[in-house]
Amino acid sequence: MKPTLIRRTILLVALTCMAIAFCSAQGPSGSLGKPLMGYELYSWQERTGSWSFSLLPSPSGVNIRAEEVFDKKVRVRGVVGLRGRISKLPAGATIFWLDGLSGEAGPKAKEVERLCYPPADIIDQVRRHAETRHIEIQLLGKNKGL
To answer: What's the CA gap between 140 and 105, in Å, rounded?
Structure first.
């Protein structure tokens, strides 16, 4: 073999190895080791019969409080509003849909009792929309078999 051909072969092998290493570092999300973002979704039915939602960043190892869930600044009314919020999340995010809060007492305890999942058709609408955005929804509450 000619020295030029050997050098080209070595260069091609080295570049291939670098490309494989780069693709492996990206992982399945394609985000260079950037952790996927998690969110918590809470839902409750208003006295009028309409549904309200609260979509919050999921704090790692920290319980979300009722004041945060029912804060009017983050509350979304109706499925259309929720779909708008989901559309703003990054692709690859995961939404953990919960039907309650753990160990909540105090002034908002009555409101916490209202947390529940909406009917299956609403859950399906929300899931289908999330899937189009490459966002996963996991139901984590006690009634997750919907």
So the answer is: 21
Average pLDDT of every residue of the chain: 78
Cα distance between residue 41 and residue 117, in whole Å: 10
Where does 9-144 show beta strands of DSSP type E?
38-45, 51-57, 75-77, 94-98, 136-139
pLDDT at 52 > cutoff 90: yes
Show the tokens assigned to 105: 């007492």
Q: Grade residue 19 by pLDDT with cuts at 50, 70 and 90.
A: very low
Alpha carbon separation from 91 to 6, 42, 57, 61, 78 (Å, rounded): 44, 20, 14, 23, 22
Residues 6+ apart with CB under 8 A from 17: none
Polymer length in residues for the chain:
146
Residue 56 backbone phi and psi in degrees, to 5 = -125, 145
Q: What is the pTM of this model?
A: 0.71
Convert the pLDDT of each residue in 75-94 to its tens digit: 999 999 999 999 999 999 99
What stretches of 27-91 show up as alpha helix (H) in DSSP?
66-69, 78-87
